[in-house]
């Protein structure tokens, strides 16, 4: 089955450019596009299932911006993959998007092959960040000591960094989902963090996903 992609961007030339790139990629099917979040929401929300697997989302748009649209889409379709493609790499834009649970963040000067790579990565359930965004996040985060982590907690942290769900982590490590959730809860306590997204971002930007176990 092809990856179904929907593009939301208020600049027609950008939107058409993305469509022309994606439409010729094997394994990707462009199912629609919209000039702002409101048009997209009107198409998505009445459906029992999302018409796309991955949404390419601009952030700054008239009528309904990318943050508002992403919030509504995530609320209605928690498993929908949203890949932000924005001109702005400032953390004032990046953090609110990631805190909503979007699956990736790219800058608009990314080459076409990177956009395709990111689409496939987020479809597979992985977090995908532009290298410059990742570097900015890493520089902004305070270093957190990890010496006190157990071997199992390190394994869980590496898989959290890759964006895996609790059930997926349990499957890889041959644990129950309840045990996995307990490990994640302990990690949040040890790192002094409030959310799993915050933990995943820290782990990802600090390279914990580089040698994650794969089962």
UniProtKB/TrEMBL annotation:
Protein known as: DNA-binding NarL/FixJ family response regulator
Protein's UniProt keywords contain Phosphoprotein: yes
Domain (Response regulatory): residue spans on this chain: 4-123
Domain HTH luxR-type residue range list: 142-207
Organism: Kibdelosporangium banguiense
SMART domains per record: HTH_LUXR (SM00421), REC (SM00448)
InterPro entries: CheY-like_superfamily, NreC/VraR/RcsB-like_REC, Sig_transdc_resp-reg_C-effctor, Sig_transdc_resp-reg_receiver, Tscrpt_reg_LuxR_C, WalR-like
First and last residue of the signal peptide: none
GO molecular function, one term: DNA binding
Pfam families from the UniProt entry: GerE, Response_reg
PANTHER family named in the record: TWO-COMPONENT RESPONSE REGULATOR
PROSITE patterns: HTH_LUXR_2, RESPONSE_REGULATORY
